[in-house]
Amino acid sequence: MKWDRVSIYHNMLIFSHLNLYLDEVGTMRILTVGFDEEFSKEVEKEIEKYFICIVDSARDLYDASNFTYFRHYELIIIVDEGVKFSLERYINSVKAKKKETKIIMLTKSSENQKMFFSLGADDVIYSHINEADLIAARVLANMRNLYGTKIDIGKLCIDIANKKIEYDDKIVSLNGKTFDILAYLALRKQRVFSKDEIINALWEEPEYVSDNTVEVAINQIRKRLKSILGFQVIHTVRRRGYKFSY
Fold first, then answer.
1. Same domain? 84 vs 24
2. Which residues, at least 6 apart from 120, have a Cβ–Cβ distance to it below 8 Å?
3. Which of 30, 44, 140, 190 lies 20 to 30 Å from 24, alpha-carbon distance?
4. Buried b (16+ CB within 10 A) or exposed e, 61-92
5. Are residues 174 and 231 in the same domain?
6. pLDDT tens digit string along 100-121?
7. Domain boundary at 91, 115, 146, which?
8. In the chain, how long is the greatest CA-to-CA distance?
């Protein structure tokens, strides 16, 4: 579907009025592929109006393969290089590692749209591809369902924007990464996340964070919540990771 400038700005205005402000827990790791350095920074600046994000930049698909081998991404934005075989192989490898990763293609030709979708792309932009604000609007449209500012589940309320947790009118004190981990899992309830995925999502330099850091944080969350709620909401799935279940 082709979006014109009016419809895209209308979309931006709607979500601006909804005040989709996300604190650290809304961190989204993004990889741009084939952007020049200056334009990549422009896109990052525009996306940061909606999300707190960590943006890595790869020169080409070969360079991107190195990034995705070591890190997990919520979103990858790729400039069309005209190499179908390499792109197909790359998309398959990304989806095999993390099927939830969104891939947006930028191309100058509308004729390529059908091909990119057949290769596994989630969205294709073929107009205004040099305008960072419009790319950011498409990112917002694709990613908004993964993020929110408040989670209400029964008597439990997690206010992400203000980093506040209440249960049955009682305040639950969690700060820093312990809060971030809880809210990250709660936003994606019932899905299992490995320690590696949690680290990649919430730490800017995940290579320097150990699995033990997550284990300690999870134990702190469980201890604090059980003292207030009387039961656990973060469960261990053996050999896979953790999930939120209320």
1. yes
2. 88, 91, 92, 95, 103
3. 190
4. beebbebbeebbbbbbbbbbeeeeeebeebbe
5. yes
6. 899 999 998 888 889 999 999 9
7. 146
8. 59
CA-to-CA distance for 242 and 246, rounded, in angstroms? 13
Q: Per residue in 78-88, pLDDT tens?
A: 999 888 779 99
DSSP string, 46-71: HHTTT--EEEEEESSHHHHHHHHHH-
Confidence at residue 149, expressed as pLDDT on a 0 to 100 scale = 62
State the angle between helix axes of 37-47 and 132-143 in degrees (0 to 180), rounded to the nearest 10. Answer: 50
Q: Which amino acid is at 121?
A: A
| pLDDT class of 33 with cuts at 50, 70, 90 | very high
Mean pLDDT in the chain?
82
Query: Of 89, 124, 146, which closes a domain?
Result: 146
What is the token pair recorded at 84?
Answer: 């179908």
